[in-house]
Amino acid sequence: MCEKARRNDLIFRPHFKTHQSKKVGEWFRQEGVEAITVSSLGMATYFAEAGWKEITVAFPVNLLQIDVINALASHATVNLLADDRDVIVELDSMLTYKVHLFIEIDSGGGRTGIPHSDLKRISSMVATVTAADNINLKGFYTHAGHSYDARSKDDIRKVFSRTVQCMQEVRQWAESNDLNVEFCMGDTPGCSVGERFDEIDAISPGNFVFYDVMQTIIGSCADDQIAVAMACPVVSKNAGSNDVCIYGGAVHFSKDSIEDGQKKIFGMVVRLGSNGWSEPLEGCFVKSLSQEHGIVHLSAEEFEQTKIGDVLGVLPVHSCLTAEAMGVYRNFNGELIDHYAQKNRD
Amino acid sequence: MCEKARRNDLIFRPHFKTHQSKKVGEWFRQEGVEAITVSSLGMATYFAEAGWKEITVAFPVNLLQIDVINALASHATVNLLADDRDVIVELDSMLTYKVHLFIEIDSGGGRTGIPHSDLKRISSMVATVTAADNINLKGFYTHAGHSYDARSKDDIRKVFSRTVQCMQEVRQWAESNDLNVEFCMGDTPGCSVGERFDEIDAISPGNFVFYDVMQTIIGSCADDQIAVAMACPVVSKNAGSNDVCIYGGAVHFSKDSIEDGQKKIFGMVVRLGSNGWSEPLEGCFVKSLSQEHGIVHLSAEEFEQTKIGDVLGVLPVHSCLTAEAMGVYRNFNGELIDHYAQKNRD
């Protein structure tokens, strides 16, 4: 992704919400990354502690956290997101340090942001930001969350092209109004598959750092690009159904699932080695999760070879949520790697 | 639930996996509860620290955690669960302190346990436990997880009656073999709605302590029996759809959902007061969750009345997972209440 950003002359503001790790962040720094994106002010504070100087908080500004915003802005360059004029007016009056602002654009995802075609509201928003004393207009930001509905590279390409086009339309309006600001987009499917970033200045994907089962089904990546797996002990076998119960449930994986053909799955199954893992095992998948239990369906052959006490690897459906639920990583050297959501427990 | 246990002359071993709180545990102690149930050894250790002397770990024994088992068994009465003979043999050889064992029975849930009708395997399991040096047969345990498929009190009653009947059949076999042991069952729907606990000795429900939206839809409880809500700031409004975005996503709620009529919902919406909350707001529900964002659909009237910066209450679909994701509670006096999964962060 670093290489792709360089090749397309894009500012790369990787989203750190997936790994949430200072250590993993260092690997990005070694690639020359200088600015990052996060999804909460707490996460921003965590990474500011690690020396990151420019942090975009890609979540609509929550005025109830003004004290955290001011604390953060006192020693880092903070880019906030908003889609509402009243919020800007109130924010401006509460700031004790200057911040930068991306106006959020809804390019079709429908979650948050001003619809890209609503130039009247965009114009009014720009005027409000421009009039603010403590807020500098950084640019426009969009997250094409609807790329997650894709089920092939072609589907992704369509959403990606349309997203770029939406941003181009806003850009044309901006340029005709002498606004020279940054246009940033951020979804992992689009940034993984898209090739022509015309008139986009910056990208901020996050999930690509690990990918996950969902991304393979969307079409963003191949199975062997998934970079995290959960090690789950087998604690019970059900010979009637070829199911095994693993110690690995909703509190460990969170509870995201995805349709894989006709099946709803909560993870794919791999054999763990000393320095990696196998391809996903044919005919094997996590079929349900309760609080601490995971039920894994195995092929007859794999069921036969699996004993209680064995440790199976599970590729998560949604790596961001699984990493958050676990609060720590272990690499193949046995070293622990930090996560912002570290818990006070084993 | 305490009163129901007393009335039916049942040992009450409440499952603490829902609240996971020492403070909430004290409230049970004040009701005379002396033995508890948990879903992990870590949780067992947490509650042993709070002085609980008899703890059932209602999860198939994980031999990879033998050190935790031995540490716990050195100072508390520990009841483990298993459904496999080889595990018993291995466990027995690894124990440095004596433990008690419930043989897990599958009464139709199909998750773990020996099918109740497989008396041959049950008999062989009993013989193995009886022959073990460090394991005392405590009894038989079943979790009728299929009660979660119910959608009415009548549905629940059917699963409950069938579960009691399964346990009675095992009990008849046990008594004819001069085994005088305990029969325990644990699901919240069944224990909430069921009335005739004939030949059941003990119950271990957990979720009833808070209940949640899922339990209201199953038929276990009424809306006004839900005892936890999440306070979520509104950060964006979408006038086109009457949706608002709240700061409250999958990392806060986990990602369980349930079908409510034709809709898939991730929570119900209430107005928060200074000492409680309103009934669920008609026509309002959490319609989707991403990592930190929640999208709440509001009725036209509620949308009109809701401003960015307001705090909405959300009743969670699955209170156990939401409590685990948050790792702490706050009561209406502003006091924090502990949770085992407390995180090292805001």
TrEMBL record, chains A, B:
Keyword Lyase: yes
GO terms of molecular function: D-serine ammonia-lyase activity
Pfam annotation, one family: D-ser_dehydrat
Single Gene Ontology BP annotation: D-serine catabolic process
Keywords linked to the UniProt accession: Lyase
Name of the protein in question: D-serine dehydratase-like domain-containing protein
Entry keyword Lyase: yes
Native species: Fulvivirga imtechensis AK7
InterPro entries noted in UniProt: Ala_racemase_N (IPR001608), D-amino_acid_metab_enzyme (IPR051466), D-ser_dehydrat-like_dom (IPR026956), D-ser_dehydrat-like_sf (IPR042208), PLP-binding_barrel (IPR029066)
SUPFAM superfamilies reported for this sequence: PLP-binding barrel (SSF51419)
Family: Belongs to the DSD1 family.
Domain D-serine dehydratase-like stretches: 227-333
